Structures are given as structure tokens and as C-alpha cells.
Amino acid sequence: RVKEDGRNSYRFFTPEMQAHTSRALALGNALKQALPRGELHLVYQPQVSLLDGRVVGAEALLRWNHPQWGVVSPAEFIPLAEANGLIVPIGEWVLHTALRQLRAWLDGGLPMMTMAVNLSAVQFGQAGLTDMVSQLLRQTGVPPEALELELTEAVAMKTPEVAAQKMQELSQRGIRLSIDDFGTGYSSLSYLKRFNINQLKIDQSFVRDIGTDTDDQAIATAIVQMAHSLGMTTIAEGVETAEQLDFLRARGCDQVQGYHYSRPLLPEHFEAFVRANLQARKQKPTPSAQAN
Ligand code: C2E
Ligand code: MG
Ligand code: MG
Ligand code: MG
């Protein structure tokens, strides 16, 4: 409602915009205390191989449970953390926590798998990133090949020369690199051959209607073919149905991740999911023993 006091005749902010801004300010402020107060935790989404149905990886996803606001989406608070620089300590905490978790799972007898961690542009731009990551790998005893850093196209394209050098540093140490939300960013494909990228993540916007939309089918198929020709693998995000799964498998997509298999899980639930997956595969005849 416009206040009728004359001074407010020029209103550039609607009440919704104001609410949004004050919420953003309040969230950004509260975020400063989130780490010390233990309000952050990670959930882990299984990444499943389309070759044999094995859980071959986990993606660590950040959650903020605020005492007043409840669960705040990372889509809302990550941009705020990027704007006020908090993404640097938070991102380091995410890396450390995810690597410690993988170490604990391996020590508990789970088979080797990759841990995918999202890296924001601000983090990627930090001097000393490679050393920080290497230090955490040494500290937790996780082999570098088991860590997969997820970058977006925007990160890769921002300062291509710097990015190329950083990616080379990371991949020379054995760390895997994956391009998140592939196909949605504004980028040139030429970076794919210059950068040491291991995997493309087909964005969920192409997966959603893949059962019916022939454009999405063409795009997903092209991404898989291009990735394979360039020596990269592919994983599809946001796979929710058997129909989507079947299409992606038929086109040679390597892995999937999505609600069809599992939502992101708390550590103990992730572990139970992997154990159940192993058990189910033991009970099934192996593909070679199967009569076709
Ligand atoms: P993302 O890395 O592309 O992660 C995929 C998002 O899709 C996650 O949302 C996940 O929960 C969701 N998702 C997974 N399967 C399905 C599905 O079958 N259907 C649908 N509709 N959604 C699915 P989430 O956890 O809310 O994260 C949103 C974004 O926030 C992430 O997108 C990532 O860009 C960012 N983010 C999350 N954790 C971190 C972090 O630790 N660091 C950084 N820098 N960014 C993070
Ligand atoms: Mg993976
Ligand atoms: Mg991701
Ligand atoms: Mg994504």
C-alpha cells in the first residue's frame, strides 16, 4: 500500500521488493553466525552408474537450518554468501566436511566412490585454492581422484586464461573437474578442449521433458556424443522417472542423479542406501549370466 503522506509519491520499491531486500539483508547477516552456531549441514545425493546400477558417487549439497526461518534454500543463501565473502570460509567447511564424510564411509567399508563438491566462482577465484584443497585431501587421506569439483560454465568463462591455469593445476594433482548445469550458461564450446574437464552434467532443464520434447532429446543426445568424443563422461541431473532414465541409458549417458533413485540424504541414510544397493545387486544375476 502506498502511504498517502505526499513524500512517498516516488516509489521505486514495491512492498514485495522491499520485503525481499530486507529478507536478503537479514539472511546475509544471520549467515555470519551460521557456521559458528552449527546451523549448516550437508546432505548427499547418490550418483548412479547406468552401466551397472552401482552408486559411484555422491554430491554434497549444503543445507542451512535457521532457528527462526527454518530451512533456507542454497539457491537463496549461496548468492548472499558470495556477495559478502562468507562463501570462502563456508566453502572450505563444505570441502572439509564432505572429505571427512567420504573418509568415514570408506573406513566403514563402503566401496570407493567420488565425492562431488560445488565450487562457487568466488571460491574458484581465490588464490591458493589448489593448495587448500590438496591440504584437505592429505589431512583426510582421500585420494585426489575421489574428489570431483563442480564448476559452472560462468566460472570457466569469467577469466578464461586464469580459469584454464587453475583447472590445469587442479587436474595435475589428480582432482576431477565437472561442469555443472551444462548447456544453460553463456559460453563458448572452445573452452571444453582447452580445459581439463572430466565430466559434463546435463542440466535438469533438458531432462525434465526428455520423454516427449524432441528438442531436449536432441540436446541431451548431442551433449553425450560430444562429451564422449572429447574424452569426457556425462551425468544427467534431476532424473525423476523411469522414462527419463531409459532414454538417457539408450543414448549412452554414463550416470544419473535425481529423485528417481534418491533425494539428497543425511549421512546415515546415504550409507544405508549404498548398502541396500550393494545387497540388491548381489542378489541379482550378473549381466553376463543373464539370458537375453
Ligand atoms: P546443483 O549443484 O545443480 O544441484 C542440483 C540441485 O537439484 C540440488 O538442489 C538438488 O537437491 C536438486 N535435485 C536433485 N535431484 C533432483 C530431481 O530429481 N528433481 C529436482 N527438481 N531437483 C533435484 P539444492 O540442494 O537446492 O541446491 C541448489 C543449488 O545450490 C545447487 O545446484 C548449487 O548450485 C548450489 N549449492 C548447493 N550446495 C552448495 C555448496 O556447498 N556450495 C556452492 N557453492 N553451491 C552449492
Ligand atoms: Mg561422479
Ligand atoms: Mg552441483
Ligand atoms: Mg546442477
From TrEMBL:
Coiled coil: none annotated. Residues 24-278 form the EAL domain. This is GGDEF domain-containing protein. The chain holds residues 666 to 957 of 967 of the full protein.
